[in-house]
Specification:
With 472 residues, the protein is an alpha/beta fold. The protein is built from 13 helices and 20 strands. The two termini are 32 Å apart. The structure holds zinc ion.
Length: 472
Amino acid sequence: MADSRAFRIYSKLPIWAQNVACSHAGIKMRRSRYNNTFHKALRFLEQSQWWSLKELRSYQNEQLQRIVKHAYDTVPYYREIFDERKLTPKDIRTVDDLSKLPILKKQTIRRHFRDLQSKEWPRKRVVYGHTGGTTGTALSLVSDVDTQPWQWAIWWRHRQRFGLKLNDSFIVFAGRSVVPLSTMDPPFWRRNLPMHQTYVSVHHMTKQNMPILVSYLQKRQVAYYSGYPSALYLLASYLLQNGIVLKHPPRVTVTGAETVLPHQRLTIEQALQTELADQYGASEQCSNISECEKHTYHVDMEFGVVEFLPLEGMPSNVRRIVCTGFRNMAMPLIRYNIGDIATLSELPCSCGRQSPTVEKIDGRIESYIITPDGRQMGRLDFLFKDSAKIEEAQLIQNELSSVTVKIVRSPGYTSRDEESFLAGMRRYLGNEIGIQFEYLQAIPREANGKFRQIVSRVFRDQYLPSGTNEAF
Ligand SMILES: [Zn+2]
């Protein structure tokens, strides 16, 4: 649906024809995602997840050498970078050697879009795509035809850990425009039969439409749900508030695309009577971190190198993510600064996998409030999570001196609740910062339907070279 003309035509079709179009797209999607490369990769990954750390590291070094040599030989941007530094591929033998190369910024990808593509990669293997993001921040990308099946193999290894199978039926709650935004009448979902998928549009998950969606879900029996945690949380909160129990609860709920906050996880698991399985990936398809059966996040080392680099002024285990993908020979991304933050863990996992673990994914670099006295506060969800009086809250910081709290109230919210939130926030943010409350019917999503709990322009700007639109 990326083509806007095709989407205009799609929007005008009757619902049955939109369902046919979705299924038709599903045939193609199935072919490009779940092909021979996918099955081969998945079989490999099922084994390699049990390798020793030494074996995984040696595999990574091999893959790194392969991609570095390819980049040097065929990608003009990298040839120049290497030449400038008087380096050759022989200088990058291990993951530790990566620090000899510069960090690749989003802005650089935009500026050197052509020069970052391999000149010797067969055109018929090249796939064009882009990342999500708010208007103006989406990034055009090029990938090899095998990148996507590899990404899906990584995602399916994660799903298999929770007993899911490729042909299981499922319902997705996410931001793709399968239901045109102008559509006011139900259904707010479309079927993609070849993929056994029902796609619910998060753009239509309003309070008004929730009863219609829930009565539909009560009629469906599927193996699992998947989607944005914020969308599943809206559904879960609605069920709890109205005392509704799902007749056919999904055994597992797979989340991704946004950070899942602890209170969202609890509410989703309780209301949907499900086990939540989270993973962190990126549309750039160069890094992935997935939960195991014990709900520990493990770095998917076979997919790329994930470097966790220190952030000035932050605790030493809070790191920014920089990644080098192994699977995209059409446009290799080496040391790409993805703009996300994670908290490292020192603890080994009892599942037996030796790949490094991450305590939590903190989310976007903008997800930190900066106080006038210089403290950086991420994850303030705990301030709101215990209140049944709030449906959703979002913190916006456009300047150092103030924060705006956007709130969607539940019935029974009074000025006392505002006072108690204000007191709670003052405890963490101090007395110097201005705090305003703004009440809304719904908190606007980004263009791709994603929800962000904290958006701090101040934090982002602090790490920005002036005049750019980059996290670093
Ligand atoms: Zn584990």
